[in-house]
Amino acid sequence: MSTVLPECRCCERSVLVAGSRCDVDIDDCVSSPCYNGGTCQDGVNGFSCVCPEGYSDPQCVSRMEHCQSNPCAHGTCFNHDS
Q1: The pTM is what?
Q2: 40: β partners
Q3: Do residues 51 and 34 lie in contact, with contact meaning Cβ atoms separated by under 8 Å?
Q4: Do 76 and 66 touch, CB atoms closer than 8 A?
Q5: H or E element that contains 47
Q6: DSSP code of residue 69
Q7: Domain map (residue ranges) of the chain
Q8: What is the pLDDT of residues 18-73, one digit of tens each?
Q9: Which Pfam families is this protein grouped with (predicted)?
């Protein structure tokens, strides 16, 4: 009597993408996807960036323009680093 072993075929870019049992999680932060000093946090099938003050969007690329909303009404607004 022979034993039949299961064969796992992992879907590319799935949560469990590697290993003989498809049980190895891929670290999505290896490529350093966060810019301007942002910190990458690996997640399940993705990542998120914690941006430094003054930067926004998913990968910390865009500089926040605080004056864009005209917060000073009749005064003059200046963007500056805190």
Answers
A1: 0.59
A2: 49
A3: yes
A4: no
A5: strand 46-50
A6: G
A7: 27-82
A8: 556 666 778 899 999 999 999 999 987 789 999 999 898 999 999 887 787 888 88
A9: hEGF
